[in-house]
Amino acid sequence: MISNFSFLLFIQEMIIINKTGFNPYLPSWEYIPDAEPYVFNDRVYVYGSHDKFNGHVYCLNNYVTWSAPVDDLTDWKYEGVIYEKTDDPLNPDGSMCLYAPDVTEGPDGRYYLYYVLDKVPVVSVAVSDTPAGKFEFYGYVKDQNGELLGERDSDEPQFDPGVLREGNKTYLYTGFCSKGDLSRSGAMATVLGEDMLTIIEDTVFVLPSDTNSEGTGFEGYEFFEAPSIRKIGQVYYLIYSSISMHELCYATSDYPTKDFVYQGVIISNNDMHIDSYKPDDKPMYYGGNNHGSIIQIQNDWFIFYHRHTNGSNFSRQGCLEEIIINDDGTITQVEMTSCGPNRKPFKGTGEFPAYIACNLLHEDENPYTGDLWMDSHFPKITQDGKDGDQEPGYIMNMTHSSTAGFKYFDCQDIKRVKIKVRGYCKGVFEVKTQWNSEPLGEIEVGFTNVWTEYESEIVIPDGLQSLYFTYNGNGRPSLASFSLEQ
């Protein structure tokens, strides 16, 4: 049973986070990657897998969902556990994980949850009367002979289901193709009937893997995983994670199951390909796999994606950015920011938590390594305590050359900057408005085993600014927050 004190802390954390509009958009102790966002009944619901803080593999927790009103993406409400690992008959002991799901509304007005367990090749389905659940097991996707999709002789294993219903048909997209795997062909599409389970049009391949992409137009951006389908007007948009893993790409077609054409990258959790403030091939964050989708909320469009924290692939957090659908239907790649849910720059005064860093750099950085990999030389966003503890996030291991970047702030008359630091260290934090610019000033820090505030008189130029904090010195300080004062 949760104590009254713990409950109050939980509510306080939600209010603080929800009303600031930070990325990540959920509390700093919540780890929901692979987001599929939908608008149901004037609320935005986010369905994803559920990582564990300090987890040793992906997706160790049960499915939960959060929702927000369509007119305020900073006001997220925890809806609770919507489905447990043991709810699937194939997983009575809970030893298998619930991988990335998707949800669609059926022709009967109920909500259908599609997912794959981590050690079986079939697609499971659960159903609920409401978008917030709780969902109950419904069945497995099967053909008209009762054979399960993924187990038939001609099937490839199913993975990462994405769904779109039109009338009495539901289009199911699945697939996983690691680099160089000759046994996998690409992203698959299968059409289901009115019962949301039974195949009425058999599987076809709609996006190529890297082993069969020559001459397709997808070269260098082949399908890896995470297919997600949306329809804008009469055009189908298939969002997916490319073979590079860190980027969400998209392809379009006038048809749901054929003729998809590669269009471009929507976002990269390395911030690669962005050349507005750095070389386009320079990573600005420690990346990894990416999974998410686009959604129209009122009159605007957004991309939901995830980033990697805790020096691991296995503690991922959801972020979002506003995107523009151009007149020709293309989407221009957007950069990662700290203020995505806020939809505008932060007012450039007050205290800001360090875990909202959208850029995190070190002189020995690598774009992607694919496993547990950050040792004590590299900065990482983390938290104290264990999974489920509502502890605020911070940046750990700010060793020499480590840089944390934050975007964007509307600054006016800022003359003093403060930081909260702890750890064995002796050095300075340089304050800059570009990742590689000359510092505006520096703040000296020293050894402290508790969070200690340091400050310096530093003038930030008026107007729209990015802020970067670079540590130069000995040791490995942690950074909890920074404050801007007039």
Automatic annotation (TrEMBL):
The keyword Phosphoprotein does not apply. SUPFAM superfamilies: Arabinanase/levansucrase/invertase. Signal peptide: none annotated. One of its GO terms (molecular function) is hydrolase activity, hydrolyzing O-glycosyl compounds. Transmembrane segments: none annotated. InterPro entries: Glyco_hydro_43, Glyco_hydro_beta-prop_sf, Glycosyl_Hydrlase_43_Enz. PANTHER family: ENDO-1,4-BETA-XYLANASE, PUTATIVE (AFU_ORTHOLOGUE AFUA_2G04480)-RELATED. Belongs to the glycosyl hydrolase 43 family. This is Glycosyl hydrolase family 43. The lineage of its organism: Bacteria, Bacillati, Bacillota, Bacilli, Lactobacillales.
